[in-house]
Write a structure and sequence with these properties.
Distance between the termini of chain A: 37 Å
Oligomer: heterodimer
Order of helices and strands of chain A: HHHHHHHEHEEHHHHEHHH
CATH architecture of chain A: Orthogonal Bundle
Largest interface: A-B, 33 and 37 residues
Shape of chain B: globular
Structural class of chain A: mainly alpha
Strand content of chain A: under 5%
Number of helices of chain A: 15
Radius of gyration of chain A: 21 Å
Radius of gyration of chain B: 26 Å
Chain lengths: ~325, ~525
C-alpha cells in the first residue's frame, strides 16, 4: 500500500510562528515564562526578593499548595474537582494532634491517624461522586462544611498544642543535605505524583477517564474506581500538608487554611491542567504553585496590602483561564 | 453449504422489540474471509439491529449465529470481541487529548512489575503495529490534532488489535471528505488482504460499487436480496432498497389548492416564480458550503435532499445566521444581510425548526406556554414584566390551530408524544408569522398520523406566503411536501428541479446517489 510510504501530510506539524507555538503548546512553556517574568519583576522592584534565603522561604511557604495541588491535578484531569481540601487539612491535622496528645505520644501512629483520616474523607467524597452520581462540585462543597465543622467540634475551636520534637524535625524543622524538610516533602510528592501520572498505567487511566469517559469504559477501564483513587490520593496529600503545617506551628489549628483550596485549584489551572479534564502535567502544576508562591511572597515584599493581594491573585487566575481557553 | 468456510453465518434471525415492533423477521447474512460485504437498506430496515445482534448488544429471538463455524450466543460486546469481532462506531472509543499510541494501548498498556509504562517503548510498539498493518498514522500524534479520516483509521487500528477476524464498520464515511475516503478505503483493502472479513454498513451506493465484493439489502426487516457486486447495477440496488409499492406513495394526491400552488412553481412565466425571492444565496461559500446558489420565493416549499453530512443542514444554518458566508451574498427580502447571530435572523422573520427537538427545539421540563413564548420574549414584555396572560392566549390559540393533543397550556412538554412535541415547536413560530421557515427533519420520531397533520401545518404556512425550506432524509416526504427540490452534495447544489420532474422515489434516490461520490 503506497500511503504508508508518504505518510499523512496533516500529521506533520505545520511551521508556525515560534512565539505562538510556545503559547499554544500543550507543555507549560507559557506559564514558565510567566514565572520568570514575575521573578524578574519582583527582583527589580525589591532588592530583598532575589536572595537564596527568600527562595527558601518561598519554597517553604509554597509547600502546602504544592503538596495538595499534586493530588488536585489528578482529580481535575479526571474531570472532577475537590473543594474540600482545606477542610480535610484541618480535620486530619486536628485528629493527628488529638491522638498524639490524648492516646499515644508516638509520632508514627499520629501520622498514620492523620493520613488515614484524610484518605477516608477522600474516599467518602469519591463514593458520593461515583456511587450516587452527585457532581463533585456539590459533594466537596458539602464536605468543606462537614469536615471544617467537625474540626471545630473536636477541638472546641481551640488549637491543639503538640510536643514531639521528632515529629517537628521530620516534617518541618529538619533538613537533608541542607534542604529544609518541607521542600524535601514537596519533592517527594512531586516525583511520586509525576511517576504515577506520567509513567504508570494508572496515570493513563486518569487521562482517559477525564478525556473521554465513554471511550475509557469501552476500553475496559473502571472509571468510577479511577476517580475514587484520585479523591483518596488528594485527601491523603491534604493530610500530609496538615502534618507539615502542624510541625511548623507546633500545633494543629481548626481555624487555619480557609480558602487554601482556591490557591490549590489556581496553581493546577495555571499549570495548564484543563478544568474539563483529560489534560495536565505535574511539572505544570509545580510551576503553577510556584507562581502562586512567588505572588504571595513578592506582593508582601513590595508592600502590596493583603486585600490587594487577594484581588490580584483572583484576576491572574481569570486571565490564565481565559488565555488557556483561547488556545 | 458454502464452499469457503464463512466467518459469520447468520440464519433466519428474528428480533422483536417490546413484543410489538418486529425489527428483524428472518434475516440471513454471511461473511467470508477477505471480503467486504456491504449491508444496505433504508432507515428502519434492520441494518443496525442486525449488526447489534452480531455484536451481542441485542439478543435475537430466533435463528442461529455461527461464528467461525460455531454456534454462538453473545450477551455483550465483550463476548463478541473475545470471539474476534470488532465494531467501529463513529469516533466513540478515542480519548482526544491522548496520543494515538496511548489510545491504541488504552487499558492494556505493556508495563513492568511496578506497573510503570515506558512511554517511548509504548510509542515504538504502536508505531510498529501501525506500520505492519499499513496504517499511515504517526503513533505520537495527538488524536485531537488528527483530521477525521485519521481518527477513523485510528479507531479501526484499535479495533483490529488482538486476534480480530471480523470487522464491522457502521457508516464510516458519513463525516469524511473525498480525499479522506480514499485513505479509509485503502486501509480497508489492506485489512481484507490479511483475510479479515468486513461488514460495511452504508447509505452510499457509490461506495458499495467501489469497495464491496457482495451486497445484502434489507427492507422492512427482511432480506431483499444478496448480490455479487460486479454483477449488478445501481438501478437493481435502488429498486431492491425502495421495494415495490413505494413509488405510488410519493404521488399522494394533493388538494386542489395545493396542486395549484405547486403547479405555479413549474411555470417560469407564473407569478409564483417571477416574484422576488424571500431569501437568496448567491455563490455562498463558508467552511462547509462551496458556491451555493439557491432562491426561495414566497409560498414555495423547497426540499433539500442529500446524504447526512452533505451540507444540507449547513444551508439552513447559513440562512438562519448561525453560519456566515465567507464569500458570496445572502440576500434577504431584496437586501444583502450579514447576520451575526440567529437572534438577528429571528428578528428579521426567519424561523428554524431544528433537527433535534429535545436538544435544540424545546425545554422539555417546561410548560407548553413557556415554550411557545420563548422566541418572542421581547414582544411579550409589558413594562419590563413578562406578559403571562398574552403568552397564555397565544399558547391556547397555537394548541387549537396546530391540533396539539394536550390537557392544557401548562402541560409539561416531556408528557407529550413526539408528534405533539413537534407541533409545539411549530407553535413557537406562529405569532408573528415568519417570512422564512426552515425545517430540519421535521417528522423524525413522529408517528404516521401526526405526520400528516404536520404536513398540513407546513402547507398552511406556505399558503399564507411564507417561504419554506425542508431538509429530510425521507425522500418520499420531500416529494409529497415540496414544490421544488435541490440536491446537495459535498457543500454544493448539484441539481435543482421541480418536484413533478422527478417521478417517484427511485428517481430521486437515483439523483441523490448519482451526485454523491
Amino acid at each position: 500500500m503506497t500511503t504508508t510510504l508518504t505518510g499523512p501530510p496533516a500529521v506533520a506539524a505545520p511551521r508556525r510562528n515560534p512565539v505562538r507555538q510556545i503559547l499554544a503548546s500543550d507543555k507549560p512553556y507559557a506559564v514558565f515564562l510567566a514565572l520568570v517574568a514575575l521573578i524578574i519583576f519582583f527582583s527589580i522592584k525589591s532588592p530583598y526578593f532575589f536572595a537564596a534565603d527568600n527562595f527558601a522561604n518561598i519554597g517553604r511557604q509554597t509547600t502546602l499548595v504544592t503538596v495538595i495541588s499534586v493530588g488536585m491535578t489528578f482529580v481535575i484531569i479526571a474531570a472532577e474537582i475537590d473543594l474540600s481540601v482545606a477542610s480535610i487539612l484541618k480535620l486530619s491535622g486536628v485528629c493527628a494532634a488529638l491522638f498524639m496528645a490524648n492516646f499515644a505520644d508516638n509520632w508514627i501512629l499520629g501520622v498514620i491517624v492523620g493520613l488515614v483520616v484524610g484518605a477516608l474523607i477522600g474516599l467518602v467524597n469519591g463514593l458520593l461522586v461515583t456511587k450516587l452520581g452527585i457532581p463533585s462540585f456539590l459533594v466537596t462543597l458539602g464536605m468543606l462544611g462537614v469536615a471544617k465543622g467537625l474540626a471545630f467540634v473536636f477541638t472546641d475551636t481551640a488549637p491543639v498544642l503538640m510536643d514531639n520534637q521528632t515529629f517537628f524535625s521530620v516534617f518541618y524543622e529538619g533538613s537533608i543535605l541542607g534542604i529544609p524538610m518541607p521542600i524535601i516533602w514537596s519533592i517527594i510528592v512531586l516525583v511520586g505524583g509525576g511517576l504515577l501520572l506520567h509513567y504508570s498505567t494508572f496515570g493513563r487511566k486518569v487521562y482517559a477517564t477525564g478525556g473521554n469517559a465513554m471511550a475509557a469504559r469501552y476500553s475496559g477501564i473502571n472509571t468510577a474506581r479511577v476517580k475514587m483513587i484520585c479523591f483518596v490520593l488528594t485527601g491523603a496529600l491534604a493530610a500530609l500538608a496538615a502534618l507539615i503545617f502542624a510541625a511548623q506551628g507546633h500545633a494543629s489549628r481548626p481555624d487555619f487554611a480557609d480558602g487554601l483550596e482556591l490557591d490549590v485549584i489556581a496553581a493546577v489551572i495555571l499549570g495548564g491542567t484543563s478544568l474539563f479534564g483529560g489534560r495536565g502535567t505535574i511539572i505544570g502544576t509545580l510551576i503553577g504553585s510556584l507562581i502562586i508562591g512567588v505572588l504571595n511572597n513578592g506582593l508582601v515584599i513590595i508592600g502590596v496590602s493583603s486585600s490587594w493581594q487577594i484581588a490580584v491573585k483572583g484576576a491572574i487566575i481569570i486571565l490564565a483561564v481565559a488565555f488557556s481557553k483561547r488556545n | 453449504m458454502t464452499t469457503v468456510e464463512s466467518l459469520v453465518d447468520m440464519r433466519d434471525i428474528t428480533l422483536t422489540f417490546g413484543g410489538v415492533v418486529k425489527a428483524l423477521r428472518g434475516v440471513s447474512f454471511d461473511l467470508r474471509p477477505g471480503e467486504v460485504h456491504a449491508l444496505l437498506g433504508q432507515n428502519g430496515a434492520g441494518k443496525s439491529t442486525l449488526i447489534k445482534v452480531l455484536s451481542g448488544v441485542n439478543q435475537r429471538d430466533g435463528g442461529s449465529v455461527l461464528v467461525h463455524g460455531e454456534e454462538t450466543n453473545f450477551r455483550s460486546a465483550q463476548d463478541s470481541q473475545a470471539a474476534g469481532i470488532a465494531m467501529v462506531y463513529q469516533d466513540l472509543s478515542l480519548v482526544p487529548s491522548m496520543s494515538v499510541a496511548d489510545n491504541l494501548f488504552l487499558g492494556r498498556e505493556p508495563h513492568d512489575r511496578l506497573s510503570l509504562v515506558r512511554g517511548r517503548r509504548l510509542h515504538a510498539a504502536a508505531q510498529k503495529y501501525l506500520d505492519e498493518q499499513g496504517f499511515p498514522i504517526k503513533a505520537a500524534a495527538a488524536v485531537a490534532s488528527l483530521p477525521f479520516a485519521y481518527r477513523q483509521l485510528t479507531e479501526i487500528a484499535k479495533a483490529l488489535m488482538g486476534d480480530i477476524r471480523i470487522l464491522v464498520l457502521d457508516e464510516p464515511t458519513s463525516a469524511l471528505s473525498a480525499g479522506e475516503e480514499d485513505i479509509l478505503f485503502d486501509a480497508v483493502k489492506e485489512v481484507t488482504r490479511r483475510g479479515v472479513g468486513v461488514v460495511y454498513v452504508t447509505h452510499r451506493l457509490r461506495e458499495v460499487f467501489r469497495i464491496s465484493d457482495r451486497v445484502t439489502v434489507l427492507r422492512d426487516g427482511l432480506n431483499a436480496g444478496t448480490f455479487d457486486t460486479p454483477e449488478i447495477t445501481m438501478e437493481t440496488l435502488i429498486s431492491a432498497i425502495v421495494g415495490p409499492g413505494h413509488a405510488k406513495m410519493a404521488q399522494a394526491t394533493l388538494s386542489l389548492e395545493e396542486g395549484e400552488r405547486r403547479q405555479g412553481f413549474s411555470d417560469p412565466e407564473h407569478q409564483s416564480l417571477t416574484a422576488a425571492p424571500v431569501i437568496e444565496l448567491r455563490d455562498v461559500t463558508n467552511d462547509r458550503l462551496r458556491g451555493v446558489d439557491l432562491k426561495v420565493r414566497p409560498g414555495e416549499i423547497l426540499g433539500l435532499a442529500g446524504m447526512v453530512g452533505s451540507g444540507r443542514t449547513e444551508v439552513l444554518e447559513t440562512m438562519f445566521g448561525l453560519r456566515r458566508a465567507a464569500e458570496g451574498q445572502v440576500i434577504y427580502q431584496g437586501a444583502e444581510v450579514k447576520w451575526k447571530s440567529s437572534a438577528a435572523a429571528i428578528k428579521a422573520g426567519v424561523a428554524l425548526v431544528p433537527e433535534d427537538r429535545h436538544l435544540q427545539g424545546l425545554v422539555l421540563g417546561d410548560s407548553i406556554a413557556a415554550n411557545t413564548a420563548l422566541p418572542q420574549l421581547r414582544g411579550l414584555t409589558r413594562f419590563g414584566f413578562f406578559a403571562k396572560g398574552e403568552a397564555g392566549k397565544r399558547a391556547t390559540s397555537a394548541l387549537k390551530e396546530l391540533n396539539v393533543k394536550a390537557p392544557g397550556i401548562s402541560t409539561r412538554l416531556q408528557n407529550l408524544s413526539g408528534g405533539n412535541q413537534q407541533k409545539v415547536v411549530f407553535g413557537k413560530w406562529l405569532v408573528p408569522e415568519p417570512k422564512l421557515l426552515l425545517l430540519d427533519e421535521p417528522t423524525v420520531g413522529v408517528d404516521v398520523g401526526a405526520r400528516d397533520e404536520i404536513y398540513g401545518i407546513i402547507r398552511r404556512f406556505a399558503q399564507r406566503g411564507c417561504a419554506v425550506v425542508v431538509v429530510s432524509s425521507d425522500l418520499v416526504e420531500l416529494q409529497m411536501l415540496c414544490d421544488t427540490l435541490a440536491i446537495i452534495n459535498d457543500g454544493q447544489v448539484t441539481t435543482t428541479a421541480h418536484t413533478s420532474e422527478v417521478q417517484g422515489e427511485e428517481a430521486l434516490q437515483h439523483l441523490v446517489q448519482e451526485s454523491a461520490r
